[in-house]
Specification:
By secondary structure, the protein is an alpha+beta fold. The protein is built from five helices and twelve strands. The protein is globular and about 50 Å long.
Length: about 260
């Protein structure tokens, strides 16, 4: 599901592209753009997305009476990430997933599961241009009274840390902007591949020429009726920052006392 482009993969991809340029002068054939490619263009374009090396954002989550906040910073080329909460930090430095709990007796986190998780929801649809993504157009479907273009996303085996995850993306048929998504979580149980939860992208924000989520709502999914169930949480993304340069490697280094 996540962490699609580790450094080694980038090196191999670059080497293959270089070899092809040396042995072939024919221009690549390009067919019609897929719906996901059209959606990426509608949200600002892949070239602009790839021009940034750093992404930072704050996420405010509300669920019932509980509110929590996290800050994330990522290297967009390697997907290294550091997440900072009120009393914990999580990170991935390219080799190690780590956690630092700042209060005695805290329940341990799962950094392998948590790293890139919220980033993935936030960076849709751009992350669907990653290696290993399989796109299947499912035609037009109605959801809560509106007709959408629907695309199912699966992953090649071995992609990321949970390649059995599935996503179903709902695109406005005219603008191709993303408005809703179903997702499954198979990290803990592969049999959950078709047990979906739902997100509605209710508000967007423009950041450096890209259209990124500002607010999304979580819903239960009514499989029988193919409709949103009750809302069970809201996420707000604020103080979003994109920069061309990548963060220093020390940003993601495992700190003293982490495990």
């Amino acid at each position: 599901m996540r962490l699609f482009l580790p450094v080694l993969s980038l090196i191999l991809i670059t080497a293959c592209e270089s070899s092809q340029k040396q042995t072939s002068t024919a221009a690549p054939l390009k067919g019609p753009k897929s719906l996901i490619e059209q959606s990426i263009e509608a949200h600002g374009g892949l070239d602009r997305w790839k021009s940034f090396g750093t992404l930072a954002f704050e996420m405010v989550s509300q669920r019932g009476d509980r509110t929590s906040e996290e800050r994330s910073i990522l290297n967009l080329y390697t997907r290294h990430e550091r997440i900072t909460g009120a009393n914990y930090e999580l990170g991935y430095d390219g080799k190690n997933y780590w956690q630092l709990l700042k209060e005695e007796g805290m329940k341990e986190k799962n950094p392998t599961f948590s790293i890139n998780l919220q980033f993935y929801f936030f960076a849709m649809p751009f992350v669907l241009a990653d290696e290993g993504v399989i796109e299947e157009h499912q035609g037009k479907k109605e959801l809560d009274g509106k007709t959408y273009e629907v695309v199912k996303i699966t992953f090649e085996s071995g992609t990321g840390v949970a390649s059995d995850d599935q996503y179903i993306v709902y695109l406005d048929p005219d603008t191709k902007r993303m408005e809703a998504m179903l997702y499954s979580v198979t990290y803990f149980n592969k049999e959950n591949a078709e047990k979906y939860s739902a997100l509605r992208y209710t508000e967007w924000q423009e950041v450096n020429g890209l259209s990124l989520p500002k607010t999304l709502t979580r819903h239960r999914w009514n499989e029988e009726e193919q409709s949103f169930g009750e809302e069970n949480g809201v996420k707000h993304f604020v103080n979003v920052r994109l920069e061309a340069e990548v963060p220093a490697a020390t940003v993601f280094a495992k700190p003293e006392g982490a495990n």
